[in-house]
Design goal:
Layout (H helix, E strand, L loop, with lengths): L24 E3 L12 H4 L21 H15 L1 H8 L9 H13 L4 H17 L5 H16 L6 E3 L5 E6 L6 H14 L4 E6 L4 H14 L2 E3 L6 H15 L3 E6 L7 H17 L6 E7 L4 H14 L3 E5 L9 H8 L4 E5 L7 E3 L2 H9 L5
Parallel strand pairs: 1-2, 3-6, 3-7, 4-5, 4-6, 7-8, 8-9
Antiparallel strand pairs: 9-10
Helix pairs in contact: 2-13, 4-5, 5-6, 5-12, 6-13, 7-8, 9-10
Amino acid sequence: MLAAPAFRAQPFCEAFNHIPMFSFFKKKPKTEPELAPVPPALTDSVSLNDSVAPYAPAESPAPPPAELKRSWLARLKSGLSKTSANLTTLFVGARIDEDLYEELEAALLMADAGVDATHFLLSELKRRVKDEKLTEATQVKSALRKLLIGLLTPLQKPLELGQHQPMVMMITGVNGAGKTTTIGKLAKHLQANNQSVLLAAGDTFRAAAREQLTIWGERNNVAVIAQESGDPAAVAFDAVHSALAKKTNVVMIDTAGRLPTQLHLMEELKKIKRVITKAMPSAPHEILLVIDGNTGQNALMQVKAFDDALGLTGLVVTKLDGTAKGGVLAAIARTRPIPVYFIGVGEQIEDLQPFNADEFVTALLGEATD
């Protein structure tokens, strides 16, 4: 913003490094011994330039980067249109008075920005209006845009590759958040970045979850460690040992969906984490929580509960398309600022992209006017 000898420890898609969506993985210098080459089957289906649209036929030329960028920003703006409509209409022909601030407060709360973030934004906005002597509604909107970008920027952090061999990722979340689908999409992105991937079906309770992960594995030509029943911690242990033996770059371990109130299941997650550490002392290196953007403040409660139990390293926010609760990222930034690695605005592989604060706020409030 580790792999085979052909993989260079430098920013992903160096040629397009000025484009945020092509720099969501950050590489660190390799410190491990040289690895065996990645099998061709794991990398032939995707090239670096095709990472945003990996399902395009091999003979189809990749769209120009500028076109890919426009396409993603259009989908993001469309996905956040409900949240945006509640905010932007306030400034149309508005007078700068207490009525405007009250309407803005209501809009932010309706967007699930939360009480803390809402009060912070309003107090800072009033201060800027006074200090900078702002007199036009467009100026107030621009000031709010800057405040939101400043609030959300700490959440913007690239997923780092190359520090560990393998890098072990533990994926958690409640039922229906989109964990398994997210794992499949991330696997494709990782392959596009020349990483070999191994998946572990740690949800041993639902046959459908194992089948879904297996389908993603077949689609991506990625091996999947699974058991029809048994201990999910054992599946995770086997997956880490297999990755160590085969010199796989990344292991992603799926886990069964659970509510934070299901204490026995939360304890099981802690057990899985402990067992992973026994298999590889430095692991897990990433503990990601997948949250549904439609759940608003419930998503914030999930972040707090899973972070307290496991120590989260990152978030993936899915299903932001069509929601009126896009302000939940402001609540997260204010109360539990855990990095948001990716956001999703649809079902397609290209609908999951790295989080960028400026792009997100632009989709909500429009381009800067000053």
